[in-house]
Amino acid sequence: MRGIRTVLAATTMLAGIGAASATDLEVTHWWTSGGEAAAVKVFADAFNATGNNWVDGAIAGGGNARPIIISRITGGDPMGATQLNTGRDAEDLVKAGLMTDLTELAEKEGWADFIRPAKLLDSCRFEGKIYCVPVNIHSFQWMWMNRGVYEDNGLAVPTNWTEFVASAPALREKGVIPLAVGGEPWQINGMSGVFMVALGGVDLYRQINAQKSAEAAASPEMTEVFEAISAARGMVDDGFVGRAWNDAANMVITGKAGAQIMGDWAQGEFSVAGLTAGKEYDCLPGLGMHPALDTGGDAFYFPKPADDNPEIVKAQLEMASMLVSKEVQVNFNLKKGSLPIRGDIDLAAANACMQKGLVILENPDNILPSGEQTWSSDTQGQFEDLWVEFFNDPGMSVDEAQERFVEIVENAD
Amino acid sequence: MAHQARPNPYFRNLNAKVAATPMILTTLIVFVGCSVWTVLYSFSASRALPVNEFVGFAQYDRLFNTSRWTKSVGNIAVYGIFSLVFSLVVGFILAAFMDQKIRFENTFRTIFLYPFALSFIVTGLVWQWILNPTLGLQKAVRDLGWESFTFDLIAHRDTVIYALLIAGIWQGTGFVMALMLAGLRGVDEDIWKASRIDGIPKWKTYIFVVIPMMRGVFVTTLVIIASGIVRLYDLVVAMTSGGPGIASEVPAKYVYDFMFARGNVGQALAASTVMLTTVLIILIPWIYLEYGSKKPK
Amino acid sequence: MSIEPIGTRPRRTFDPTRMMIYLVLAVAAIYYLLPLYVMIVTSLKGMPEVRLGNIFSPPVEITFEPWAKAWDTACTGLYCEGLKVGFWNSMQILIPSVVISIAIASVNGYALSFWRFRGAEVFFTILIFGSFIPYQVMLYPLVIITRELGIFGSLTGVIFIHTIFGMPILTLLFRNYFASLPQELFKAARVDGAGFWGIFFKIMVPMSPPIFVVAIILQVTGIWNDFLFGVIFAGTKNFPMTVQLNNIVNSSQGVKEYNVNMAATILTGAVPLAIYFLSGKYFVRGIAAGAVKG
Predict the structure, then answer these.
(1) Which listed residue, of B148, B167, B260, C55, carries a Cα 20 to 30 Å from A135's Cα?
(2) Which of A74, A88, A185 faces B49 most closely, judged by CB atoms?
């Protein structure tokens, strides 16, 4: 206990200078790795500079944090602010009237004018009112490759999925695992979404993930996606059960594997290992087939304080305003490795792969709706179960899997 | 067992009743209350939060049509049977050996118990490494020159449950051993003396005299192991995340995933109602046999 | 009842049975120690070695940095103070929870085995049933109960929760142990005029060190390693050590420092381990016989 108290006392002293009415706001989040913590620090410093006090409540692992966050809000001991994924995660909490309404602030500051893509803010809306603040954009549609593995083995570095498939047997012969995958269900689920865009194109993805079209889910284009995933089964090693995504990324970094399909956060691993984009490693958005990106990300919610304490609400609004401000957005996202939610700021410091991403985002047609904004967590879970089962069970035929897929789309709520 | 069966039961044992008040309140408010709540809301359409919108058996309908649930039930049955048998047998044998006035008893006991002290958050990872064919035992043995050595339980859908078993038994048997040892230490020295004088072999004394005397300890152990099996969760998350595919999913993980990560409380409660009902079906006849008859043993 | 001297029985030097016993115990010990070996070896390696080397190979260059980092400087969110921060909180939760839960459960077990009152078996049955309910299912109702009692988010709240969850198994443990003690003891004490509490403190407790040790093992381990209840019911000020452990180990992104994770796990497990080792001497043969004689 003493430790935390000392820290609290210290931060209070720092922040308290010149601000008599400093309000403590406990912020729960699951950003605990080095880079993430550095990014959170940008927020905390900026918030403390407003004369309030950021009390850090980090709980590693979204799976661990979510039950705690939800039960504390429903138990009547809400934190001041909390991270949650953008989308429908918090829908029921909002519906139950447990979140502070940010509409007034959002209108005053004109959030709708600068937050891009617009659907990020839409996902914070419930019955016309705004209940959360999007803070960054992450996309899954990337393949990361170790250039050295290909060059050393006398192979051309693939520029798209088809070339990658063609080179896979050659890699195998040289004792390199073509595709590194992890064992956590979300990784395989995400990979399937990537295939959907890469092979089926933006239209297929949009029809399924935005319009919930069961027809598209049953189309031959979708069959191709299933076939590709079925082919990918043969490109992995058999040690992937329970493997974390960053261990899979490390296999690519150390040259044990050729490539990995993973979101833009994987870049952090490559840069920590001292690799340079375009030199030692390469990135293929949309697997080099259809370069389009989804725009999921993180958002902050502000649970209503006990007794609607006006001081806490005031501090919450101050924090919300700080989160979207220009300077904070630039600094935070450079640290986090994600893209900012504002279209009106300059990111000259971004690396080659991030620049690729920014270029893609300039064209609104390239922006995919992210599944978590369309599907409830329950439906997403059903997809996850299906993909994971399909990827791991060679006995499950393409037809059978697609049939179940259509069923889930039809029954989605 | 209690022998008193005299009249006027309400004022007898007043002290005992006062002493048992916390237990009575806990059972009524917490356990009965929570069970009723669970069953009630399993008929609701509750999503992230419980709501009073009742939908009949819809949640159950979906539950039994979900391959992940069916697989979970099958897994827990296999895991349960093996884990029960191995924990009891290994635990008892270790305890019986430890009870032979051996040297280094303290050291051995701590060695068998220490896994119980460590959080599965990381020990699950260590087992994952050891069992992983590309990192662990298989690779180590192959590097030594035995090229065809295969030990890849964790990588295959049909065998992954045995990989969990290896780690589960590693963690749990130490405590079973401690319980058994406590039971053995409660056995009267004179029993041993008598059997020695009569020339009865040691193993016979254990099976026909000592084990029946340790009935209470066995019952306790059984309940502890069984409740651990029903609630099996951490180990699976730490070692396999339910993979490969859904091959190592278990019911408690289903409940937890739906309760929070997937924001479907109704479905989670339906699954847990099925779990509770199953436990009840197994428990009631046994409780009746064990404690139902008022006659003293 | 006669006196059996405590200590080793006379035995031959080359006894094949004893050789076999040691052999079996030694083989079992290898199975139990293998993961610990991997953990210790890993915790003494630097990160490059962990990433590239064999998990069984001893460290080429021994470093204690991961241990220091786990205890002192590992970051959890914004605060980089390692595991030490939560140590005293865990102690504050552990000691009262263990004492209260064992005290209540031992009295329960005693009342249920010697002073059975009408309906006792019904409550007991429900209690056993309670030990099969997955914790997660009970979170919502328990949050509401503790909120209504006004102890949600406090030390009292988390102690309350641990007492409740410890009750089923502990009560069963004590009940069945007491039931195996000779009835004659109890009867004799009754004839001598001893009451409910007198018999409990003067006869039952002194006869039960092995089972108290088992109960302590169970509770210390369970409560010390608990993460979920601590983090929900104890309130931010009282976060136990496992919150830091989880934050160090489960960092969702970034490079995993396996050596620090292993060191952190062993450090966190040190308290239960110490208790196991110290409680060893109470597992002594002949207690029951001694008490009967006395």
Answers:
(1) B260
(2) A74
All partners of chain C with 3 or more CB pairs under 8 angstroms: A, B
Interface test with A, best of B262, B264, B265, B267 (most A CBs within 10 A): B262
Please give the distance of CA B209 from its chain centroid, rounded to a whole number: 27
Query: What H or E segment, with its residue span, contains residue A370?
Result: none
Q: Answer whether A341's CB lies under 8 Å from A69's CB.
A: no
In angstroms, rounded to a whole number, what is the distance separating the alpha carbons of residues A301 and A319?
A: 11
Q: Which CATH class is domain A2-137+296-343?
A: alpha beta
Q: Which residue of C has its CA nearest to A2?
A: C85
| CATH topology identical between A2-137+296-343 and A142-294+357-411 | yes
CATH number (3.40.190.10, 3.30.420.10, 3.60.15.10, 3.90.780.10) of A142-294+357-411 reads 3.40.190.10
CA distance C82 to chain B (A): 16
Spatial CB neighbours of A409, under 8 Å, sequence gap ≥ 6: A208, A212, A213, A214, A217
Q: Which of B133, B152, B240 sits opposite A183 (nearest CB)?
A: B240
Question: Are B246 and A385 within 8 A, CB to CB?
Answer: yes
Q: pLDDT in tens for each of the 413 residues of chain A?
A: 344 444 444 444 444 343 446 788 999 998 877 677 888 999 999 999 998 999 888 888 777 788 888 888 877 788 999 998 755 567 778 888 889 999 999 999 999 888 878 878 888 888 889 999 999 888 888 999 999 999 998 889 999 999 999 999 999 998 899 999 988 888 888 898 899 888 888 888 888 888 888 899 999 999 999 999 998 988 998 888 778 787 888 889 888 899 999 988 887 778 777 888 888 898 999 888 888 888 778 899 999 998 888 899 999 999 999 999 988 998 888 777 788 888 788 777 777 888 888 888 888 888 886 666 678 778 888 888 899 889 888 888 999 999 999 999 988 87
Q: Is C91 exposed, middle or buried (0-12, 13-18, 19+ CB in 10 A)?
A: middle
- B53 vs A contacts (CB less than 8 Å): none
Whole-angstrom distance, CA of residue A173 vs CA of residue A167:
10
- Mutating which of B28, B122, B265 best tests the C interface, going by the most C Cβ atoms within 10 A? B122
* B23 inside 8 A of chain C by CB: yes
CA distance B185 to chain A (A): 40
Find the residue in C nearest to B174 (Cα).
Answer: C32
For domain C84-293, the CATH class is mainly alpha
DSSP 8-state class, residue C64: -
Q: Do B157 and A385 touch (CB under 8 A)?
A: no
Which residues in chain C touch residue A55, judged by CB atoms under 8 angstroms apart?
A: 236
ipTM of this complex = 0.83
Q: Looking at the complex, does the CB of residue B292 fall below 8 Å from at least one CB of chain A?
A: no
Looking at chain B, which subunits does it touch, using at least 3 CB pairs closer than 8 Å as the criterion? A, C
Judge whether A25 and A312 are in contact, CB under 8 Å: yes
Q: Which chains touch A (3 or more CB pairs under 8 A)?
A: B, C
Contact (CB<8Å) C225/B93: no
| Contact criterion met (CB below 8 Å) for C113 and B19 | no
What CATH architecture does domain B42-292 belong to?
A: Orthogonal Bundle (1.10)
Q: Which residue has the tokens 């299933």?
A: A226
Two structure tokens written together for B127 = 């087992």
Residues A281-305: b if buried by 16+ CB within 10 A, e if exposed: bbbbbbbbbbbbbbbbbbbbbbbbb
CA geometry: angle A60, A121, B259, nearest 5 deg: 40
Q: Are A369 and A294 in contact (CB under 8 A)?
A: yes
Strands (E), chain C: none
